[in-house]
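During the reporting period the student researcher (J.K.) took over the structure-prediction task from the postdoctoral fellow and processed the backlog of single-chain submissions. One of the processed entries is reproduced below for the supervisory committee.
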Amino acid sequence: MMVSNFITEHPKQWNEVALADFFDDNLVEAIKKIILPSTPKEESLRSDWLNVANSDDIVNLVINPPIQSQGMSSADEKIQVQTSIQITLTLETIWNYHNRVVHSDTKPNLITIIKSIERKVHVINKVVDCLEKPLHDTVKLNTDAALLGNEAILAIVARDDSGVIIMSTTKKMFTEDPIVAEASTMLWALQLAESRHF
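J.K. obtained the following structure tokens:
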């Protein structure tokens, strides 16, 4: 499902019927307050570029946000990183909102949630400005593991000395132990580094 499925083209406006099929009344009202530009800006993230059909597409969306640019200048790289962070924090917030509704039967305030995302993005962007790229001719591997029940998802992201993502991958394993999951991810990263001559 793409965001553009919720927008009519002529006139360009939110499709209230489609929104009502997927979201509750409060969320529909909040979404309708988002102003849709008549023509998208070149540098903006466009909803019709968000073709997300599975978890791999979501990972790719986060790692390679669809930002149109003339080349990869340092400003473009910074925008790409900031967009990745904003998408990640938004997805995390949606997941947390979902869990609160399902497991706690609460009704979080949408305005508070949006302000929370804005604050997190602002804080994280300050931290990103301080991060340094890997040394010349160096590839940096970041690893993570997430558990749900007896299943773990292992993830690796590799960046070159320009800070550009050159590889990302995930895989599943069966374990209930977070230490085993983290250690397995690190071992896998070392094996990938060796096999790819990083």
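The committee noted the following: DSSP finds six helices and five strands in the chain.
J.K. will present the remaining backlog at the next meeting.
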